[in-house]
Write a structure and sequence with these properties.
Blueprint: E1 5-9, H1 13-24, E2 28-32, E3 44-47, E4 50-53, H2 64-72, E5 79-83, E6 86-90, E7 93-96, H3 100-105, H4 111-129, H5 142-150, H6 152-167, H7 176-188, E8 190-191, E9 195-201, H8 206-218, E10 222-224, E11 229-235, E12 238-244, H9 248-258, E13 264-265, E14 268-271, H10 275-281, H11 287-293, E15 297-308, E16 317-320, E17 329-332, E18 346-354, H12 359-362, H13 365-379, E19 388-402, E20 421-423, H14 436-455
The structure holds flavin-adenine dinucleotide.
């Protein structure tokens, strides 16, 4: 083991992976998580004798980094691939949206537009295969591109509702680059033309979170929970340590690591907190870097999870294209995994992406359910409040970064302008969509960079 001590702020997949990779290289790692449990956005809660993600989670077959990590940690046999059932709710009806022929049957879109849509998607996929210059897609929003080249109906009736399901009121502002990449990855995630398979770890995402935490501790690394970092201590333009919040667990970390000093000393600090949270604990960042850290905004997510006596719909993922409905998707976990895993109950997420200023972000669980109930009855007229045996409510402020046009020139660098301080969060994942796979990749990249800087005695020197 080296005598270099590295602090990692945040215990989501990026932080856990960075700590694990640095531990493999012999560094002394200390990970600080402000919440009482690890996992970050992919964290879970107990339900029916098992665990369930607070926000629905699955993998695409293109998510190779996290699957390889599962294998490395001896969890390869836990990775399962399951055919997904995706649907579309519009005009009071659930439409299948699994195969290309389902698209051709989507009665809400005129036939000629359906054919055109299929051809344009094929063209976008060909562009990737032929490695054509795609940079121009960063300069135009997906909404404008589709209206111009793919047909107004394709945007208004197909993509706009899907983007709304992902980006809420920001749906019109997403660069085409993001959409192009998503189409290519989703088509790549198909096994054959007819079905899409999604991955899920047997036992929930918690099995990987626990395995990473165990591996870090076995390497001699330390994990502090309920331990918010209050400040990154910077001396002469170099990050030298951390101060902790005033709560008991954080103060224990302070006493254990700082001894007589007023702060705990570290050789390097890796911050995986969302940018707005990072800016609260790091002073003295130059304006140009702060501008990059604030170039991408965040959407919040509000999730109501229902434990039901009966099924809401036949779909795993149901996009809500009907604009009169105040949520963007329902995700029925037990149409993906067998309901026997949850004691025979039906588990449904009602999902919303919105601005944190939205009234829905402030509502209580009971208020949300009351607001959603008549709309759940549009999806299934038999649905009644009596079906609900238990209900949970979670909200996340930094659920989804919204990147602006020409983002590649605005992504904050991993090495911040403060020497020995690194930033690794979801705003640096581009053009791919954020996801656990890319947070694992990010954690691996940041660990390699921190190690290279240590070995070469400098800050990229
Ligand atoms: C509703 C929803 C559905 C999703 N679905 C999928 C999916 O199907 N598949 C998929 O792969 N991904 C999905 N994701 C995305 C995935 O969860 C994230 O991309 C990934 O987990 C992010 O990991 P991270 O470590 O980069 O960030 P985070 O998980 O945000 O981790 C950052 C951590 O930093 C901690 N922190 C912040 N400030 C401090 C501080 N001052 N001191 C100490 N700790 C601090 C936070 O508490 C947090 O735990 C979904 C996300 C959401 C919200």
């Amino acid at each position: 083991m080296t005598n270099k001590r590295i602090a990692i702020i945040g215990g989501g997949f990026a932080g856990l992976t960075a700590a694990y990779e640095l531990g493999k290289l012999g560094y002394q790692t200390c990970l600080f998580e402000r919440m009482p449990e690890l996992g970050g956005l992919a964290g879970t809660f107990p339900l029916e004798g098992t665990r369930l993600e607070r926000g629905y989670h699955h993998w695409f077959t293109s998510d190779t980094h996290i699957v390889a990590q599962m294998e490395e940690l001896g969890l390869g046999d836990r990775v399962q691939w399951i055919a997904s059932k995706t649907g579309w709710f519009e005009q009071g009806k659930i439409w299948n949206m699994v195969t290309p022929t389902d698209l051709l049957r989507l009665g809400t879109l005129p036939f000629v537009d359906r054919v055109r849509l299929g051809l344009v998607v094929a063209y976008l996929t060909y562009l990737q295969a032929s490695k054509k210059n795609l940079a121009k897609y960063e300069k135009i929003t997906a909404a404008d591109w589709w209206r111009q080249y793919g047909g107004r109906n394709a945007w208004d009736k197909v993509w706009s509702p899907m983007f709304r399901g992902k980006f809420g009121a920001e749906a019109e502002n997403i660069p085409m680059e993001w959409h192009w990449y998503k189409i290519v990855l989703r088509i790549g995630s198909r096994r054959g033309v007819a079905k899409e398979e999604l991955g899920y770890p047997r036992g929930s995402f918690q099995v990987l979170i626990d395995a990473l935490a165990d591996a870090i501790r076995k390497q001699g690394g330390k994990i502090f929970l309920d331990a918010p970092v209050k400040r990154v201590v910077v001396e002469n333009g170099t990050a030298v340590g951390l101060e902790f919040a005033d709560n008991a667990a954080a103060q224990m970390a302070q006493r254990e690591l700082a001894g007589e000093l007023s702060y705990a000393r570290f050789d390097q600090v890796i911050c995986t907190a969302p940018s707005f949270a990072a800016l609260k604990i790091v002073d003295a960042l130059p304006a140009a870097y702060v501008a990059k850290m604030t170039a991408a905004k965040y959407m919040a997510a509000v999730l109501v999870i229902l434990k039901l006596k009966q099924s809401l719909s036949p779909m795993y993922w149901l996009n809500i294209a009907d604009r009169s409905i105040p949520f963007v998707a329902t995700i029925e976990q037990t149409n993906f995994l067998p309901r026997e895993l949850y004691n025979g109950k039906r588990i449904v997420y009602v999902s919303n992406y919105l601005d944190p200023a939205s009234p829905y972000f402030q509502m209580s669980r009971a208020e949300l359910f009351a607001a959603y109930l008549p709309h759940l009855q549009k999806i299934n007229p038999q649905f009644s409040a009596d079906w609900v045996e238990e209900m949970w409510h979670f909200k996340e402020a930094a659920a989804q970064p919204i990147v602006p046009l020409n983002y590649s020139a605005q992504i904050p660098e991993y090495r911040t302008p403060i020497r020995n301080l690194y930033l690794a969060n979801t705003t640096q994942i581009y053009p791919e969509d954020r996801g656990t796979n890319y947070s694992v990749r990010l954690g691996q990249e940041i660990a390699r960079l921190a190690d290279a800087d240590t070995r070469h005695g400098g800050w990229g020197e």
